[in-house]
Amino acid sequence: MFWDQESETLNRPALEAHQVKCLRDTVARVAARVPFYAGKLKEAGVGPEKIQAIQDVTRLPFTTGIDLRTIYPDGLLAVDAAETVRLHTSSGTTGKPKALFFSRRDVSNAAELIARSLVMTGITKADVFQNMMSYGLFTGGLVMHYGAEKVGCLVIPSGPGTSERQLMLMQDFGTTAVHILPSYALYFAAFLEQRGIKPGSLKVRKAFVGAEPHTEETRLRIEQALGLDVYNSYGLTEMNGPGVAFECEHKAGMHLWEDNFLMEVINPATGQPLPDGETGELVLTTLKREAMPILRYRTRDITSIIPEPCACGRTHRRIRRITGRSDDMLIIRGVNIFPQQIERVLMQCPQVGRNYLIIVEGLDDLTIQVELTPAGFDGTIENLNALKAQLMDKLKAEIWVRPAIELAAPGSLPVAEGKAKRVLDKRSL
Ligand code: AMP
Ligand code: ZN
């Protein structure tokens, strides 16, 4: 099913011609209206006339998260303040947030991209869409909300309220699709199990999960525990929030909406572009953004481009599941480790529950606290020790470092409000 079949299946030459034109317009606009970019472009000796082909994007300067914090609050505005209608921010962990402004057209474009994304998984106006993401400055609430409304779904803006209330809404209003953090989906599945509610007794058939890294193993777990289809949804505040890239019905990588965003994958150490298929840092340039265009944004997210066409017929290329953020990488005894590698091993083990915490301290000592499922937590020391040894071996094989494992009772590890916090690096405290 298509929401906007013409745009979604545009042939590559037409799509690329559109990208070049939009890129040139964007460069012309920021050069004229945004002093921050005017300066950078001058320094790089590029103007709109130099943008003749897609590869010319590499002549443009990068924009980093630090840049966005430096020009906070409104240093990247390319329209008069009176033309802005919405503000979102991304909190991050330290210092000032990154602020993103939308014009009326930006709000409408963002909703269009969500509508495309949802419809491509089979959502129709008959669906009842429960948005369990936080409303407010975080984009996962409002941006997704307006997109689902655009499709014509009944949207329940439940936000991240208690599981009790989420369940009540699902039961009373016949929710068929949810938008949920993957860490919360695991938690919610455990909640249903505790309450003795069989997932099949609910009408929920689809879950859209995103906003935080998660593995294929976690997807399978959520699918099995809740008895539904899980689709990966990728986005970031700087690029509207959700609706940047989304899985179609084939669940084999996420179509990135290339008529709105120009994507590159670069070597994060050198900044050099990598060929399709190679893994590196995703860099995105807005092509249609009116209020706040952003050139070559260093997302820090690690992925690769799938160049092959998708069976669904969409021409917008897919990216692979995000395997981590370049700034999430832990260096332990000289070995580079991504938390996702650890999650993959843990989630393959049926006795492991929904939560874990990676702790690094002292001289690179790695400890992983692992919550068990009620069935896995059988209480015999022998079995628990065997499980511990098994996890240590499997982790050693994956990350080349043997961690200490601390097994924890179901529900005993701290649960974050909002995005899960999986790593506690005490070395940097
Ligand atoms: P925010 O700006 O708060 O929405 O956070 C955006 C960041 O969340 C991205 O840069 C990614 O690091 C992460 N993120 C969002 N969606 C996904 C996803 N589907 N898989 C992995 N990480 C994601
Ligand atoms: Zn597809």
Radius of gyration, whole Å: 22 Å
Largest sheet: 9 strands, mixed
CATH class of the largest domain: Alpha Beta
The largest sheet has its strands arranged as: 4-3-5-6-7-8-9-14-13
Quaternary state of the chains: single chain
CATH architectural category of the largest domain: 3-Layer(aba) Sandwich
Q: How far apart, in Å, are the first and last alpha carbons?
A: 50 Å
Put simply, the count of helices is 11
Spans of at least 5 consecutive residues whose pLDDT stays below 50 are none
* Fraction in beta strands: 15-25%
- What's the count of strands? 21
Bound small-molecule species: adenosine monophosphate, zinc ion
Q: Helical amount among residues, as a percent range?
A: 25-40%
Any idea what the shape is?
globular
Q: By helix and strand content, what is the structural category?
A: alpha/beta
Can you tell me about this structure?
- Helix 8 links the parallel strand 5 and strand 6.
- This protein has helices at about 5-10, 10-35, 35-45, 65-70, 105-120, 140-150, 165-175, 180-195, 215-225, 340-345, 380-400, and strands spanning about 85-90, 100-105, 130, 155, 175-180, 205-210, 230-235, 240-245, 255, 260-265, 280-285, 295-305, 305, 320, 325, 330, 335, 350-360, 365-370, 405-410, 425.
- The chain has a 9-stranded mixed beta sheet, sandwiched between helices.
- The chain has about 425 residues and is an alpha/beta fold.
- Helix 8 (about 180-195) packs parallel to helix 9 (about 215-225).
- The radius of gyration is 22 Å and the shape is globular.
- It folds into 2 domains: about 1-325, ANL, N-terminal domain (Rossmann fold, 3-Layer(aba) Sandwich); about 330-429, 2-Layer Sandwich (GMP Synthetase, Chain A, domain 3).
- Helix content is about 30%, strand content about 25%.
- The model has no long low-confidence stretch (mean pLDDT about 95).
- The longest helix has 22 residues, at about 10-35.
- It is built from 11 helices and 21 strands.
- Bound molecules: adenosine monophosphate and zinc ion (ZN).
- Zinc ion (ZN) binds near residues 248, 250, 255, 310 and 312.
